[in-house]
């Protein structure tokens, strides 16, 4: 599983950064993979309302947001952190929020289903200098609609008032404990899932389809990953098209190697499809071999047949977990 944290303050060691690190350190203690986006380190341009995402489901601006879309898609929990700036988010974070309109378009205009949205959670950490009752109202609404766009259920926020000087949050009498408790509460249910790994040669077609179907059918019960023994540069566009016919959105997914997936993550079950000797041997882990034809370079009808066979096999596999 992946906990993705977006540190939205321009102060690199300020209050928001301290809160985000507290959450991430607790996640690491629970044995979970984490990734932090420092907004000031990213080159992300503001949305120009060109409507390309409405028409094509993709953003025309080529910048670091393309990588961030992929991270949102991979994450099980997304945490955004921001100080209150004029009752809203910092400009750096707001740019990322606005650019998430692309994922909103894929979901609501193109009616594509990102499998992760069934269980992904979103949470916000925030801090402000004043003590007004409405201090976090604007941010709460922004967070609610942002998390909906990226396919995450908004699980609320922790906000601290009267914190101004950099580092002052450390002296707050409950903040750090509350952040750790919230991390435990959000992460622990995910840790109970069974870890399932699908592997093929390139992680471009078969193992990607199997993982997507498994996520749709049982993502709440299984942490599903996929990998290739020799990963391709990109997933197969014909596979993406045939999965879209099933309403499943494969955008922003990249092929991964076994070393990337198994770094700090151990499967309980490996399903291998045609990677032969490239299939890893993990002591004590059961392995299934699925004899599936390689659809690479074949017609779209061939891809559809392989897709349907995979869907059928995955349905039987996840039924056996119940
Ligand atoms: C441009 C700017 C706008 C701010 N607007 C507000 C505000 O509307 N309300 C508030 O309580 N604090 C406001 N603050 C104060 C910050 O929220 C506060 O200092 C916070 O602790 C900074 O957190 P950080 O260390 O994570 O950057 C503002 C600060 C700046 C620099």
Which descriptors would you attach to this protein?
alpha/beta, binds flavin mononucleotide, Rossmann fold, 5-stranded parallel β-sheet, 4-stranded parallel β-sheet, 322 residues
Describe this structure in words.
The chain is built from eleven helices and nine strands. Helix 5 crosses helix 6. The protein has helices spanning 15-29, 52-56, 65-74, 91-99, 101-109, 137-150, 175-191, 206-218, 237-245, 258-261, 300-319; strands spanning 2-7, 33-38, 77-83, 121-127, 153-160, 194-200, 222-228, 269-272, 286-289. The strands form two sheets. It has a five-stranded parallel beta sheet, sandwiched between helices. The two termini are 21 Å apart. The chain is of the alpha/beta class and 322 residues long. Strand 6, helix 8 and strand 7 form a beta-alpha-beta unit. The longest helix is centred in the C-terminal third of the chain and has 20 residues, at 300-319. The chain folds into two domains: 2-191, Rossmann fold (3-Layer(aba) Sandwich), CATH 3.40.50.360; 194-319, 3-Layer(aba) Sandwich (Rossmann fold), CATH 3.40.50. The radius of gyration is 21 Å and the shape is globular. Flavin mononucleotide (FMN) binds next to helix 1. Flavin mononucleotide binds at residues 9, 11, 14-16, 83-87, 127-130, 135, 163-164, 166.
């Amino acid at each position: 599983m992946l906990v993705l944290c977006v540190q939205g303050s321009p102060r690199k060691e300020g209050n928001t950064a301290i809160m985000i690190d507290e959450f991430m350190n607790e996640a690491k203690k629970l044995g979970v993979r984490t990734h932090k986006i420092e907004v000031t380190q990213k080159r992300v341009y503001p949305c120009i309302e060109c409507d390309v995402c409405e028409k094509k489901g993709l953003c025309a601006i080529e910048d670091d947001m393309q990588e961030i879309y992929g991270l949102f898609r991979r994450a099980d929990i997304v945490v955004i952190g921001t100080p209150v700036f004029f009752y809203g988010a910092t400009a750096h974070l707001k740019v990322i929020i606005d650019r998430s309109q692309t994922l909103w378009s894929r979901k609501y205009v193109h009616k594509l289903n990102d499998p992760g949205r069934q269980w992904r959670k979103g949470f916000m950490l925030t801090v402000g200098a004043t003590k007004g009752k409405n201090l976090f109202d604007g941010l709460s609404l922004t967070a609610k609609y942002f998390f909906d766009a990226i396919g995450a259920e908004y699980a609320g926020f922790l906000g601290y008032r009267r914190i101004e000087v950099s580092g002052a949050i450390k002296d707050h009498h409950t903040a750090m404990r509350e952040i750790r408790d919230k991390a435990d509460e959000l992460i622990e249910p995910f840790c109970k899932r069974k870890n399932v790994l699908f592997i093929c040669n390139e992680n471009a077609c078969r193992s990607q389809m199997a993982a997507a179907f498994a996520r749709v059918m049982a993502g709440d019960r299984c942490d599903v990953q996929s990998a290739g023994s020799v990963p391709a540069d990109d997933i197969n566009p014909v596979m993406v098209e045939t999965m879209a016919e099933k309403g499943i959105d494969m955008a922003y997914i990249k092929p991964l190697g076994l070393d990337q997936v198994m770094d700090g993550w151990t499967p309980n079950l490996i399903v291998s499809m045609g990677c032969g000797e490239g299939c890893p041997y993990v002591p004590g882990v059961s392995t299934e071999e699925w004899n599936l034809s390689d659809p690479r370079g074949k017609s779209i009808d061939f891809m559809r047949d392989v897709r349907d066979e995979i869907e059928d096999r995955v349905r039987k596999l996840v039924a056996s977990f119940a």
